[in-house]
Amino acid sequence: RVSRVLKVAIFSWGIFSLISVILFAGYLVYVVGPGNAESRNTASPRDVRFVMNGCKLREDQIKEVISSYQSGRSFFGGHLEMHAIRVSSLEQLEFTLDEYAIGWERCDQVKGVLAEAISLVSRIEIYGIPWFPELDEIRSEQFFVYPNSIYCSGTKPSAVRLTFAKPTEEIIYFLDYKEG
C-alpha cells in the first residue's frame, strides 16, 4: 500500500518536473529567440508604408526613414515601435474630423482620452530614444496627432498607436506602445 502511494507521488512529481522544464525552456527560447530582438534604424521606406496609409497620407510622400526603433516583445505583449519619417509635404493635411471623430488634431488642443494617450509618450523615455520628441514639445501648437488606435484599461490608455505630424519640418513620428 505504501509502495502504491509512493509510486503515484513519484510519478506526479515527474510529470510536474517535466512540464516545468518544458515551460522554462519555452520561455527561454521566447526571450532570447531571434524574432524577439531589439532593432534600431533598420526600417526602410517600404517598412513604414503602413504609417502613411494609417493616417490617410500617401506612401509616395515618403522621402526617407530618419530613425526607427523596435523593442522586443515582453512575455505579456508589451512593446515599443517608433519611426521618424521625412515626407515631401504636409501641406495637404486636412485638420478636420470625419464622421467617426477620427482625423488630425492639433496636440495643444486635445482633451480626454486622446490627451491621456499622448501622455504615454513620457513613459518611453526609459528606452533612451533621443530623436523622438519629448512630451512638452509634442503638446505644442507645432504638432498634430492622428489617433490610429487607443486601448484602455478602464478609462486609462494602456496601449496606443499614434501618428504625430510636425508640418514645419515635414516629419511624421509614429508611436506604437503597449505596457507590459
List the helices and strands and how they pair.
Layout: H1 2-32, E1 39-40, H2 49-54, E2 62-70, E3 79-87, E4 105-106, H3 112-119, H4 135-138, E5 144-153, E6 156-166, E7 171-178
Description:
There is one protein chain. The chain is an alpha+beta fold and 180 residues long. Helix content is 27%, strand content 28%. The protein has four helices and seven strands. The chain has helices spanning 2-32, 49-54, 112-119, 135-138; strands at 39-40, 62-70, 79-87, 105-106, 144-153, 156-166, 171-178. The protein has a seven-stranded antiparallel sheet.
| Spatial shape | elongated
Strand percentage, roughly? 25-35%
Q: What is the number of E strands? A: 7
Mean pLDDT: 86
Largest sheet strand order: 1-2-3-7-6-5-4
Distance between the termini: 50 Å
Please, how many helices? Answer: 4
Helix and strand composition category = alpha+beta
Tell me the radius of gyration.
Answer: 23 Å
Describe the largest sheet: 7 strands, antiparallel
Low-confidence stretches: none
Specify the helix fraction band. 25-40%
Structure at a glance:
This protein is α+β, with helices and mostly antiparallel strands and 180 residues long.
